[in-house]
Amino acid sequence: MKQHHYNLLSLAVMTACYSNYAMAEKETEKPTNALQAQCLLGVPQFHGEVVKGDQTQLPVYIESDSALINQPKDATYTGDVNIQQGNRTISAEQVRVEQDGDNARYAYLQGSFDYRDNIINAKGRDATINLMSKESNLANADYQLVGRQGRGTAQNVSVTDEQRVMKNATFTSCLPNDESWSIEANEMVQHVKDEYAELWHARFKVLGVPVFYSPYLQFPIGDRRRSGLLIPNAGHSSRDGYFYSQPFYWNIAPNMDATFTPTYFSRRGWQLSPEFRYLTKLGEGKFAAEYMQKDRLPAWTEKQKSRHLLFWQHTVNFSSNWRFSADYTRVSDRRYFSDFVSNYGNSTDGYATQNFKLGYYQPNYNISIAAKRFQTFDDSGSKPYRVFPQIDFHYYKNDLVKNGDFSFFGQASYFANDSKIMPTAWRFHAEPAMNFPFANRFGSINLETKLYATQYLQKKGENSSAEDIQRNVTRVLPQFKLDLKTTLEAKRNLFDGFDQVLEPRIQYLYRPYKDQSNIGSQRQQSLGLGYDSALLQQDYFSLFNDRRYSGLDRIASANQITVGGTTRFFNNQTGSEVFNFSAGQIYYLSPSKIDNISVNSTTKRSSSLSLESNWKFHTKWNWHGSYQYDTRLNKTALANTSLQYKFKQNNLVQLNYRYASRNYIDQNLSANRYGQDIKQVGAVIGWEVTDKVGIMASHYHDIALKKPVESQLGITYNTCCWNVSLYTARRLVATPTGKSDTIRDFYYDNRFGINFELRFGNNYNSGVSKMLKRGIIPYTEAYDIN
Description:
This protein is mainly beta. The chain is 5% helix and 56% strand. InterPro entries: LipoPS_assembly_LptD, LptD, LptD_C, OstA-like_N.
């Protein structure tokens, strides 16, 4: 858990007080960009191999034009005096060395001196150095760090093994002749072993003008973290008004810390956000919360209720084979992520998860017990089921019989619902399978047999209006699957310079029909849902899945042939793949259904035709597209395409188009949020215009809604020692009181922010990659086929 938090002043002074045991950035590291190369031009580097060990125990070599030696007590060296001991070298006009036997050896530097080692270079006038310890006293010192930015002055520096005292000290990470900012203090004391420093009468200056004063500061100078204020965050939103966040960091112990962030919204009120991190023998994790006692926003009507979030993540491995994990997020209301910017969820999430799992793992089997719960944010009024306990057992045994691999999956689950009209149920499931794989250089054949055996013990809801339900339900379904794959190399290349391969695939799947209308309530059945089941979205790769539904409650009959294939083109000079195209479709030999309700049955003769392709037609250009054609309606169901130009890592342009038909939404999601098709076009630009200037711009427009979804613009300006970023966004968000999600329940939230930060020579990032991650539709890397 080696992440350090420092406020603006403490981090600056910490860098200035870089202690002798800390290592500067390696001088052998090559600059990662032009700005870093420019900034390091004025930074001294240590040349030669660094000598390890205690420098004070190494011999001392002295050269000079003349010397007056009074053995064995003292010696005076004059004219181009050069002293070398380990990594440190001292040049001076005159040096007097006094020795007290084996107890002490002092060097008195008279006049100007030049001190250099692998940590710091310093110039000044007059100094006293103990060559057998770390004690020294420097006057009128002008210092600069080695291998990294950082320079300053001190009227007097007194150094011992325990502490360093600097009088009238200054520091800046700006290059020479650049006085953009600096820090001054009357006195600074570094406590070496405890790794912290104290500062009295500190002034922070911008262009030589004092802008901040503190009579006392305390800050870290090593890896140990210290408590204190962090850099604040401020901005303005057309919905929230002006806001200001001031984090406070608490270093509780080396293995745990906490951050408390109060935020004030001028139109909403105060919000408190604590976060606690820990690393113990019982595992590692994070606990966080967000709390607003009263939301004053005029559009929010539930004034009597607090708005809050709880978050917990935890993982631990113990006793070699045991694992425990927790992932818990819960919010006070369904509009929370639409109204607040949170690190623990966003408005595109349709639900929050609350999962716990304890498992025991062995090479051939594992067993676990889990609890699952979902908090949904829609307006359907239905409440999702929670599961506890869910006991899973997996067993694997290869070559149980000749060429046959055996697997077994068993589960026992209990489902409960907060709604008293919904039934509860125990579900016991057993799923043995035998797999016979056969492969050679021509291809592979995989024969699999499987049995789904499930027993339900259901109980009617407690409400008087709850519908009757069959108490005991038994479902046994055998399954047979035959999967054939092969790879064919084209004898004749379709295009010069490229090799082509074909990867056809045919799969036959059979599973008999079993009426499952007695599993769950009629409401669940009408939506195609079970206790933990929902219809899966379809793409090319999902065509070869065994089941259309997630979970175990809805297992549709199958008598179908899936036909598909992929063709790939490779550059015959480099061997890299430059293009692929996949197509597939399911042909139903008989209707696939789970009961007699039409929405749960597939009466058409084939599934949607699924197409997917990637094309890297230039080293800097990449295209990706996918398409589904509904053969029943004879119209497009889904489509998306992305075209990207990527000049280098942070220089890119991406164009996007997304489409989902209203019929597809109704059929597959059992809800219609917009009452029309989804048609979105968008563009993202990220570009390092110069070594110092970076921009990010994005715009997404919904053609069906005839409204912009989100527009963003970010500009960042970087120098060697400071950075400023401007950010503005306009996004479509839902009203906090809308009772139905229609296009009339949306409005625009306009945000503007400015961020200023100081740089200390260890970060030369342009900031473009960070800006690309902003927004409700963040940049996603286009599929790269290399």
